[in-house]
Amino acid sequence: MFVTKGPFIRRTLNSYFTTPNSRMKKIMRANFIDRNWRLHNVQRLHHNEAVCCFVPDYVFEQVIRDGSREERDKAIHILKLSERLRSQRHFVSATDPKRFGIGGHTERRRVVYDMHNIGDDNLLPGDPVRYEDSTDTGDSNIDKCFNHTGSVYDFYNQIFSRNSMDGEGMAMYSSVHFDEDLDNAFWNGRQMTYGNGGGGFIKPGTLTDLIVVAHELTHGVTQYESNLAYSGQPGGLNESMSDVFAIMCDQWVNKQTVNDSHWLIGKDIMVRGGALRSMKSPGGAHPGDRQVSHVRDYREGMGPHQCSGIPNKAFYTACMKVGGNSYETIGKIWYIALKDRLSRLSQFQDAANHTYTIAAELFGEDSNEQKAVASGWSEVGVEARKPTVEEIIVERKKLLSKIDSRLGR
After folding, report:
1. From 305, 354, 369, 395, the catalytic residue
2. Which pairing describes strands 185-187 and 52-53: parallel, antiparallel, or unpaired?
């Protein structure tokens, strides 16, 4: 339902119902949603969220040290842009998004915007160019983004019975063609934004590939659920969750078992190297890959992308132990952990304990699935165990606090 309050809204709705041209109606509807979104920046969260980028800073930092002058200039530009984005404080409102017609949908709602190669985040989201019931534009980045966003929605909906990122049908906004030849994509707490690639590190047109879109959308899911902090081990879990659900979505769409999958994040998108990250072999995806795969290599202050290799490897190992379709067994365990057990400051040990416990709840004590989860975490140096009574009480309090915050109490 649209709000009928205010002169802009009244004019829009009056024009909508008196305009015979169906295409014009669609454009007007997209602009209407966009205007409401710009005015209210509606989100139901209580934190200023970090910008979560797909390509880690250390990739560009290495280029600054070792690359040509042109490559260094491009890398410096990307890092400056990333720093500016992170310094922005994205204030969010506790107002119910359904009031403004951008949430509460029972079916998927996608809008893709074109930034026309402008790199100013203050101008996001840009001009609306694709929305539900519209046809292909002929622009591959726009159409890929739109179609892959739909595939990610379908994956979450059909496998986990989840309705969009917030679980309550919020509209999914994406902007493409952000900046010229930007070699990155990011979630800023409100929407997905994609560069074009082609800046010397990422191949042109690959940042709207399915696995990238799934990764960024999952940052939205994490934000609405465990809201994992974006630093230290919680940050590593945050990035890992995006990789975990991205690879599962890729396997689901392509009808692959765990044995069929390449287990690569960003396969064939790098100018140098086979992928951006490897869940099977963290640290071995490309020449500058700094991911670690064992807790003995974790250091305080390590970036989220770098230490996400630890939980990534644990998930991969558990899936390979069980076999079949990842999203039917180990994936369900990870989803429940993300949705109901993990909290903002959860550590790797917390994730191990929760997934181990959930495996027993879903599949039984000493089941193959529980043993696989224990084996996966043990492979990376974390021994999973059932939490103590005291730990359970603390976690229950966190869960109740989370529920209260959602209900506005």
Report:
1. 305
2. antiparallel
CB atoms within 10 A of CB 196: 22
CATH of the domain at 143: 3.10.170.10
For 337-396, the pLDDT digits (tens) are 999 999 999 999 999 999 999 999 999 999 999 999 999 999 999 999 987 777 777 766
Q: Is 300 a catalytic residue?
A: no
Question: Can you tell me the distance from the alpha carbon of 306 to that of 302, in angstroms, rounded to the nearest whole number?
Answer: 7
Q: Which residue in the block uniquely carries the two structure tokens 């980028």?
A: 53
Q: Report the Cα 381 to chain-centroid distance in Å.
A: 26
How far, in Å, CA of 242 to CA of 276, rounded?
14
Residue 334 inside a domain? The answer is yes
In this structure, is the dihedral angle defined by the CA atoms of residues 179, 124, 152 and 33, taken in order, positive or negative? negative
Which one-letter amino acid corresponds to residue 340? Answer: D
Please state the domain count of the chain.
2
pTM: 0.83
Question: Longest Cα pair distance anywhere in the chain, in angstroms?
Answer: 67
**pLDDT per residue as tens digits for the range 243-287:** 999 999 999 999 999 999 999 999 999 998 999 999 999 999 998
Cβ(213)–Cβ(145) under 8 Å?
A: yes
Q: What is the dihedral of CA 134, 130, 53, 233, to 10 degrees?
A: -40
Is residue 361 among the annotated active site residues? Answer: no
Verify that 112 and 209 share a domain, yes or no: yes
Per the residue annotation, which of 168, 216, 225, 395 is the catalytic one?
A: 216
